[in-house]
Task: inverse folding
């Protein structure tokens, strides 16, 4: 099992390396009416469990017994994490992540660098898993975006991410589609707390309540959508050639290896290889105190939420990056009435027949009210 996992990891690395090399030659825009498939298949907060320890233990024991031990440890870890995350899932019962990320992507994807008039399809599963007959009707090239939101099993990191893959697809002689990734990225925004005892970490997240958790996820959604648009812009494409400096960027005493793409007072974005990671260290007691003292206001997701200390709008970049005037500022969450409406159940593509619709030209953005 360990060998199989290692082989799968090496294959994924090879695909990622080839896709990164090919991404440097992408045209501008990638396509005037680029097909974009948004895979919305997550219904609740995920929990990420690291099985590295289990795999190492199994490898040390070796053989069939080692594989069984590794699987047993991993299963126990997953079960325990699923039980512990239940209170946080209960807090987010009213938070519609899929609706929020879809609206933000519809608002931010139309651009000169990516596509001036993208055609977005909302799909319940990725193209590899739909009915073969329906798959034949798919366009030969499409940008596939797979959003996800999750917390790690130590409850020290809350993460919003979008995996982006530009696929070139061909029909094989057996009637099935074969895809090759011409571009690969993971854009993720991470909310971090000090890695303390598991029970203490969980209590901190719970203290935010539904309002606080919703505000953080709203900021993560907005940040990720902004970074996708920035990455395909002229400034973002110029950064593809930049290399990490000897001195890794720092924020609030933490070091983040990679190339600094965007940095303000309370968060930072860095690029490492093909991955873009944003980080915001949290002082949860301060956030809770600010929420309690501030008047309630409607959040972007529609829930009533108290104001949270906002991030600075200023952008600081390293010498190898674009100037502050050229950098893309962090955008505030788009109010629901200004965003594109989410797809109804009838508009969401079933597994056998994806539904597509063109994206309207982007409307002027609503003035920022401060970053959540």
Result:
């Amino acid at each position: 099992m360990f060998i199989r996992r290692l082989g799968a990891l090496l294959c994924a690395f090879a695909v990622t390396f080839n896709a990164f090399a090919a991404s440097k030659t992408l045209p501008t825009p990638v396509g005037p009416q680029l097909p974009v498939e948004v895979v919305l298949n997550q219904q609740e907060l995920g929990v990420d469990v690291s099985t590295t320890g289990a795999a190492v233990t199994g490898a040390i024991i070796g053989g069939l017994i080692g594989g069984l031990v590794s699987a047993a440890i991993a299963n126990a870890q997953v079960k325990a994490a699923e039980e512990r995350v239940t209170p946080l899932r209960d807090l987010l019962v009213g938070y519609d992540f899929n609706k929020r990320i879809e609206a933000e992507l519809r608002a931010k994807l139309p651009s000169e660098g990516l596509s001036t008039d993208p055609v977005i399809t909302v799909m319940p599963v990725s193209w590899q898993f739909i009915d073969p007959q329906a798959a034949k009707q798919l366009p030969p090239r499409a940008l596939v975006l797979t959003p996800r939101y999750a917390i790690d099993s130590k409850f020290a990191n809350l993460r919003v991410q979008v995996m982006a893959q530009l696929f070139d697809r061909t029909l094989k002689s057996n009637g099935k589609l074969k895809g090759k990734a011409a571009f690969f990225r993971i854009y993720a925004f991470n909310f971090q707390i000090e890695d303390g005892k598991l029970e203490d970490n969980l209590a901190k997240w719970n203290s935010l309540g539904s309002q606080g958790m919703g505000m953080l996820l709203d900021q993560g959604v907005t940040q990720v959508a902004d970074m996708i648009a920035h990455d395909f812009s002229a400034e973002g494409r110029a950064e593809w050639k930049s290399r990490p400096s000897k001195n890794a960027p720092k924020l609030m005493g933490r070091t983040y290896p990679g190339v600094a793409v965007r940095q303000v007072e309370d968060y930072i974005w860095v690029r490492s290889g093909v991955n873009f990671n944003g980080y915001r260290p949290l002082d949860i007691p301060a956030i809770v105190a600010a929420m309690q003292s501030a008047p309630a206001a409607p959040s972007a997701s529609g829930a009533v939420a108290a104001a949270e200390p906002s991030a600075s709008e200023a952008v600081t970049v390293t010498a190898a990056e674009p100037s502050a005037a050229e950098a893309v500022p962090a955008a505030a969450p788009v109010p629901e009435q200004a965003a594109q409406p989410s797809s109804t159940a009838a508009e969401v593509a079933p597994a056998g027949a994806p539904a597509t619709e063109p994206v309207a030209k982007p409307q002027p953005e609503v003035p920022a009210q401060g970053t959540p």
